[in-house]
């Protein structure tokens, strides 16, 4: 039960609309990398509702968990989990905090579905990384905030709650008739949302493990990118079926852009290594599109003002995770430009090709020319080994039905790029 002073009595529809706006703002801020704003949003709502006695134990616990969730999401996008750990230090890693918070969301889900109330539920010892406040003193009230976390408006004519935001809840079309019915709806909704967040944290832990695997592999002399593709593909496919709650759609979109961008970049790396011109080009284009969509839809519009027809915008600070993915894409574009330099040069003028190479993050072709001048070599060339490749047809675009005999002898080592072109 929860209390609401008579002087501040709100209709159920007003309460639902208010809490819907709070949660929508929270998850949108998370997706926009505005983690401090998201944390402040739920903490302010929790404190205001607690002072006005317009909250419940389970709602208080979820808002506290969401505050902690915003803080660790900020650390995640800063890539702090890849920082080396000190010897004999306390285990305060980001992964441990995620696992603790995952357990808290599971606990809230189980208690809500089990119909437990603060008075009948066993006491829980708070952990250092998470604290659940004690429930407020229950006071009888004629009103209810049963839909305080419902993510959709209530029909003004019937007062029913949209089924998309309360799946599996039937027979609560008149949730405001009694405090107990309102409590049931609230607990079921909180449990469902916490269950969705539980699956999201599971997906987050999976992608963190994948980044750690990449970090470990990078210490080797030769990194086997092809072995990474099945892992990230599985994460992408599995996450499409999970955390599908409408309120989590901004968070799911951001997670999808991140994983699909990484998948396409890894595919482009493997395809460039195998001199697959068209597949690599398409993978780079897809990665560029995903990163661009992520930036345009998940970053809040910069405040701007016009002075003499000139727009002056405040730059948006991108987190380290996005910058790393963007830098990886730029590096692969530079590598693609070098490997297929001869093919691309035939489509434009030498001056324009030089300008295109100059605009890449690293002008690898110019570095090759500089090395040729310093070494006083006759020529500098990159040679490709075709052994072990199936259906190799050479660099550039080839019709799918074109039959090409496998290279033999010295033809098995074609030249990728050569300066000056003496062979």
TrEMBL record:
Residues 109-155 are annotated as: Disordered. Residues 113-132 have a biased composition (Low complexity). It holds the Pfam family C12orf66_like. SUPFAM superfamilies: FLJ32549 C-terminal domain-like, FLJ32549 domain-like. This is KICSTOR complex protein C12orf66 homolog isoform X1. It comes from Limulus polyphemus. The gene is LOC106464055.
